[in-house]
Fold:
Amino acid sequence: MVHKTALEGVQTRIRTAGGGRTITLVAASKMQPASAIRELAAAGQRAFGENYAQEALGKQRELALSNQAELDLEWHMIGPLQSNKCADVARHFHWLQSLDREKLIAPLASARPGDMPPLNVLIEVNLDDEASKSGCAPEQVPALAAKIAEQPALRLRGLMAIPEPVPDPSRRRAAFVRLRDLFNLLRIEYPQMDTLSMGMSEDFELAIQEGATMVRIGTALFGKRNPGLGARNSTGQSHAPKP
Structure:
């Protein structure tokens, strides 16, 4: 199977770049059909990342995995989160990688069912102040971390970022270093933080070399998306996929 072969290739590259460290692979399955998730799951992949809550819930229903039990899959919200979708994420995901503002914290915490473990949360950082991207400014991270840590229903796990996609590898590496340094500084106050999510299909090896513990891979696993297709976001509006 094509996806199984791609998974094995990515896993080999991750092991090589990691030099023995454990790196979590999140398969970025935005705009991919449930059948592609099923195929990767059958090959051993467990963590899947989605950009839109509505799209993800549809796939969970199609896979009959809404209770996360059948194949023990782990669902990550990796796209920008709208306030009106906090309850969906709190109830149906294991991880939120894209928390970037305080107003999301209370709704997430209040909607997390009491019989579920705390929602794992990463703070998304906009390292390069790109207007087209979500994420908080680096200087806002400590205040957000403090607010998350106050909520028993949430578990602060670390940081996530999508650096500016510049062609110069040295500039991408420098961005990963900045996020790693911020992560290490924050861990002095929050030693429970253990996750640094950075690196995608075209730069995940660089990210791992600079300390990533989690990478989000889409194209290298599923192939290129059709640029003419749109995705329905959590409000039902159509958006073209980002690279």
